[in-house]
Input
Amino acid sequence: MKISSECAPCVQLQLMRTLDHQKIADQRAIQGEVMSVLGAQWPTLDNPGIALNMMYKLANESIGVYDAYAEDKRLFNQLAESYWHEHPVSLENIPARILYAAAGNVIDAGLATPTDHIARQLDDAIAEGMARDDSARFLEQVPEGNTILYITDNAGEIIFDRELMRSLRHKGRHIHILVRHQPFLNDVTLDDIASVQLEHIADEILNLGQNFSFSRIDFHDTRLWPRDYDGFIIKGIANLEVLSHRTLPSPALFIYRAKCPPSSRLAGVKWNSNVAWLQE
Output
């Protein structure tokens, strides 16, 4: 998804939320530094995900923290785990688990949502159903015995991703999981794997290394990429931003909550709706 004029205020808003989260009283110096660096490079940036990654790295360096959202991730995983146990879905019901995975994208520590509102937000998002669901066509193209690379997003929603992966394995697919190598907002990293029991679901767990933007990964070149995958499931807005405009070698299903106008226009749905969009 290419950068649009709407992305600049979104990056600035996320910077303010990050600094508020760390209780930085006077944010002007850090804002000035970050906006100066981003402003100089903005016309050359390929997608908004790269801009957000640059922003977050610069902010963390200025604040002097490594993983600003570590406690939030732990708490949101607990909340999502409790929600799942109170609202279970049959292992056989893949469409419902896809809905939970899409709706779970509302869980985002970067949005500074009070934790006592999370369950209500999930209730509302799930009750809406899917605004667009291309998952049946995706699964037709990636049948039993095939291998899916599941590219993860936020903590919290990873619980619903895990349960979707569990159903896909139950239906005969092999699952490889890709996580962040280093902290990026509240995204899942290698350090979070054990706490959410992903190692029991995956045939293999990979990480991005230092390459947040996938710009140095050629999905067609198995010398640089671990293997050929039969399909990709790609979660969340940041991954949508960096991958939706790239040509992938296999069917790719983007599962997300359309939190901004560009992401809603891409799938042809209204703003703030649940999406499973098949890239074709």
Notes: Residues 70-86 form the longest helix (17 residues). Residues 58 and 64 are 10 Å apart (CA to CA). The chain has a mean pLDDT of 88. The chain has two domains: 7-63, 76-279.
